[in-house]
Design goal:
The protein has helices at residues 10-14, 83-91, 162-166, 172-178; strands spanning 4-8, 20-22, 28-32, 37-44, 47-55, 73-75, 93-98, 100-107, 110-118, 124-131, 134-141, 152-154, 184-188. With 208 residues, it is mostly beta strands. The protein has one domain: SOS response associated peptidase-like (hypothetical protein yedk fold, Alpha-Beta Complex), CATH 3.90.1680. The strands form two sheets. Strands 2, 4, 5, 6, 7, 10, 11 and 12 form an eight-stranded mixed beta sheet that branches. Strands 3-1-8-9-13 form a five-stranded antiparallel beta sheet, with no helix packed on it. A hairpin with a 2-residue loop joins strand 8 and strand 9 (110-118). The two termini are 25 Å apart.
Length: 208
Amino acid sequence: MCGRYKICKPVTKTTNLVKTNIKVEDTENYNAHPSQKLPIIKSYTNGKALELCEWGLVPEWSKKMDKFSPLINARKETLMEKVTFKNLIQTSRCIVPADGYYEWKRKDKSKIPYYFTKDNDELMFFAAIHQNNKFCIITREASKKISAIHHREPLIINQSQINNYLNVKKDATEILNSIKPPSLKFHEISKDVNNPVNNDPVLIKSLN
């Protein structure tokens, strides 16, 4: 899964990708987490926009339940099997920009956090879906290298594929299945990242 990530200066980093910025500021977020309002890219008839959306999707049917945990991830393999995701992947796609993301490796009874970035340190673009100003990141089975840490990873789209993915007239399944995961690098970091209150550059510093 993908439950935390880093995104700093989103306005500056996406200025050449979007036409409009809707109340997004160039903040530095080293610990983006579920329930936060975070910058995502949506497509409108007049062009793409960068806007804030809450991480954690709440399906309409869940309103009938007393307790429901917002969905922060959707598995690529079952997108077309679940009614909620099937409708949204066909009508409501978005992109989540990120500098890198965090994942935890289970070791005995503890979990060790790692920070992942692209080998070339370029901006990442997570495939996602949205509804009612809330979003959910799509994940895929981890590549062999990443699976040593965790069995899932966010589905990262190349910048050149963004327009295709956001175009709801095109088949999302075909697009997502054609995307090969980029080469990533990672290193162990402090468990300080476990607390969402912590939010500073120290979080991504390697322990080695």
